[in-house]
């Protein structure tokens, strides 16, 4: 009888008390999760760009950011504010990337495998499945921050990502943290769990390696520049009309052409036109391209007409526009990328 008498009301039985404790713990956990989301959510896009610079793959970067936030949430209760939330997240993300990249091959483009092919009289040779880890393009809308859009574009240009992938992963991390994200040497050392001296030494080696790899500077046009838009529109029209003459108008005389998963790539407008005209362009209407942007450059989602007449996803093409024309064309022949960029797998004829 006494268990029903406590301050004029019934005593809560043990089961009910446990239920109430569980509900309270659940409310506390929800409140903590809301605080976590509010404090960390604003950094998701820049962490995605960071993981892409490290991994060279949009799909891998997405997975790495998910793992970063999972680990951050698990350790959030122990975060004591000795560094900023941003530095703390970058420490987790960088170490997630280094662990994931340890057993993997660096991603490349065809131009990273061999010199340009002069054999324009035969189709390009294709790499065997799984033989090469190919670089992937990054949709601009994944990482675009209006407050820092120019910086974001410069730091994910294809040429820079290609060069970064040739560095050892730890040197790559040091270079990105110091040169792209502007962390100090002591901050970078804390993020990587090393010494300031090691960071300075690693940065010197990374800079020296990049200097050896550095391509001639291009007078690049921003995607919104009317000249860049005109070059993209001309490239799209040339394919949709199957018109080599239009391609000749938009390509520079020293233009290069490469496409994954093909090992062969080509240099010089004349050679590129022979390959495209002989093996790619086909008939008018075979291709449909939709303008977009990737890696801070003009790009297009590509659909190709199949044997049944349907326009199906083919890949993403990224252009390097300059004041004198298109300097580079890189086509990523992976139909899954079309969906990644927000376009349908199939278009109406």
Mean pLDDT: 89
Class inferred from helices and paired strands: alpha+beta
Largest sheet, strands/sense/barrel: 7 strands, mixed
Content of β-strand: 5-15%
Uncertain runs are 1-9, 146-151
Radius of gyration: 26 Å
Question: So how many helices?
Answer: 14
Helix content: 40-55%
**Cα separation of the termini:** 80 Å
Number of strands: 7
Order of helices and strands: HHHHHHHHHHHHEEHEEEEHE
User: Which shape, going by the Cα principal axes?
Assistant: globular
Describe the structure.
The chain is an alpha+beta fold and 349 residues long. It is 48% helix and 15% strand. It has helices at residues 14-40, 44-55, 58-75, 85-101, 140-143, 149-154, 158-164, 169-180, 185-192, 196-213, 226-241, 244-250, 269-279, 335-340; strands at 251-260, 265-267, 287-294, 297-305, 311-322, 325-332, 346-347. Strands 1, 2, 3, 4, 5, 6 and 7 form a 7-stranded mixed β-sheet that branches. The radius of gyration is 26 Å and the shape is globular. It starts with 13 loop residues before the first helix and ends with a strand.
């Amino acid at each position: 009888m006494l268990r029903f008498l406590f301050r004029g009301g019934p005593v809560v039985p043990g089961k009910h008390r446990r239920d109430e404790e569980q509900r309270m713990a659940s409310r506390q956990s929800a409140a903590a999760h809301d605080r976590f989301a509010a404090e960390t959510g604003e950094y998701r896009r820049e962490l995605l760009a960071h993981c892409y610079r490290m991994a060279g793959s949009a799909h891998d970067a997405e997975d790495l950011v998910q793992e970063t936030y999972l680990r951050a949430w698990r350790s959030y209760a122990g975060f004591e504010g000795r560094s900023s939330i941003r530095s703390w997240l970058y420490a987790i993300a960088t170490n997630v990337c280094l662990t994931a990249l340890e057993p993997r091959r660096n991603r490349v483009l065809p131009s990273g495998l061999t010199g340009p092919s002069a054999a324009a009289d035969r189709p390009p040779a294709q790499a065997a499945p799984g033989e090469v880890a190919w670089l992937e393009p990054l949709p601009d809308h994944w990482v675009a921050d209006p407050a820092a859009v120019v910086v974001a574009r410069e730091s994910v240009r294809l040429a820079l990502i290609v060069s970064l992938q040739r560095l050892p992963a730890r040197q790559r991390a040091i270079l990105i943290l110091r040169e792209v994200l502007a962390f100090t040497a002591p901050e970078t050392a804390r993020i990587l769990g090393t010494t300031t001296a090691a960071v300075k030494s690693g940065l010197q080696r990374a800079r020296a390696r990049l200097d050896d790899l550095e391509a001639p500077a291009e007078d690049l046009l921003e995607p919104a520049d009317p000249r860049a838009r005109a070059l993209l529109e001309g490239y799209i029209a040339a394919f949709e009309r199957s018109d080599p003459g239009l391609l000749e108008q938009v390509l520079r005389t020293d233009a290069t052409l490469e496409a994954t998963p093909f090992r062969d790539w080509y240099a010089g407008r004349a050679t590129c036109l022979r390959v495209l005209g002989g093996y790619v362009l086909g008939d008018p209407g075979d291709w449909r391209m939709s303008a977009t942007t990737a890696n801070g450059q003009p790009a297009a989602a590509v659909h190709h007409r199949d044997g049944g007449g349907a326009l199906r996803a083919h890949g993403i093409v990224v252009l390097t526009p300059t004041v004198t024309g298109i300097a580079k064309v890189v086509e990523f022949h992976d139909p899954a990328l079309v969906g990644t960029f927000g376009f349908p797998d199939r278009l109406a004829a």
